[in-house]
Amino acid sequence: MEKALLWAATGTGFTFLMTMLGASVVFLFKNQIKENIQRVFLGFAAGVMIAASVWSLLIPAIEEAESRNMPGWIPAAGGFVLGILFLVGLDNLLPHLHPGAFQAEGPHSSLKRSTLLVLAVTLHNIPEGMAVGLSFALASQQHSEGGYTAALALAIGIGIQNFPEGAAISLPLRQEGNSRFRSFVYGGLSGLVEPIFGILVVLISGFITPFMPWLLSFAAGAMLYVVVEELIPEAHLGEHSNIGTMGVMAGFLIMMILDVALG
Asked: Considering its fold, how many domains does the chain have in total?
């Protein structure tokens, strides 16, 4: 448990640091990144999350279920659907504003646009923190050094895609009239939920062991919901969307190599 907790804290701490580094680009650009660069960033993040959902979450969920003599597809499919429904529920219950959007989603709220922007990204960072924490918890339960390496690969991949995610929130905050420093702080803190949920999952892992396959696929479903609902559409806005597509391919390729090479 202590080893898993330390690794989870390190892994999610890295993902949080990368969010902070991404948010720091607000000090380098006047108000916004060029649209093509933004599309590459968003596409890259989408590609990483797609590959991570398959190799780091769904496949381990199936293998873990089969090791317990149950059909692997049942918890994989069931948890996947629950993860989607979880984020659909959050999207409908909590007010939030996606970067680049003009109208907030969810129930009507008097909160400032900047607050709604931070809420949107924060909500979508929850499954990423859970995914990293669950991977380290599973490695601890299996007493697998290879499992720790695979979980580390997932943390590295999530951290890499958190860099453009941090920029994607801090720059719109700057456009909303916030100071550069405030935009940086708010953008960076949107990733704080990752170590919180990652460490929390490890702490309660002893109680959720029978549900581990379900939880792994739950995180996968939630992450892919974010990809399809937000990242890919935003990466393909405009006339020339192929650059966003190449970003998706690059992100998928890098995360796949990380997982296979280190897993």
From this structure: 1
Confidence (pLDDT) at 118? 76
At 158 the three-state DSSP class reads: helix
Tokens of 53: 């959902």
Q: Give the C-alpha separation, 45 to 26, whole Å.
A: 19
Q: Do 103 and 125 form a contact (C-beta atoms < 8 A)?
A: no
For the record, the structure tokens of 109 come out as: 């709220």
List the one residue out of 234, 221, 229 whose CA is nearest residue 167. 234
pLDDT-derived band at 113 (thresholds 50, 70, 90) equals low
Q: CA 140, 142, 146, 147: dihedral to nearest 10 degrees?
A: -60
Q: Which amino acid is located at 28 in the chain? A: L
Predicted confidence (pLDDT) at residue 102 exceeds the cutoff of 80 = no
**Helix ranges restricted to H, the chain:** 2-23, 35-51, 59-67, 73-93, 113-142, 145-175, 180-189, 193-203, 205-208, 212-226, 232-235, 242-262
Question: What pLDDT, in 10s, does the model give residues 31-67?
Answer: 566 777 778 888 888 899 999 999 989 999 999 999 9
Question: The domain containing residue 202 runs over which residues?
Answer: 2-262
Q: How far is CA 242 from CA 175, 232, 236, in A?
A: 26, 12, 8
The SS3 call for residue 66 is helix
Distance CA 139, CA 151 (A): 8
pTM of the predicted model, to two decimals?
A: 0.84
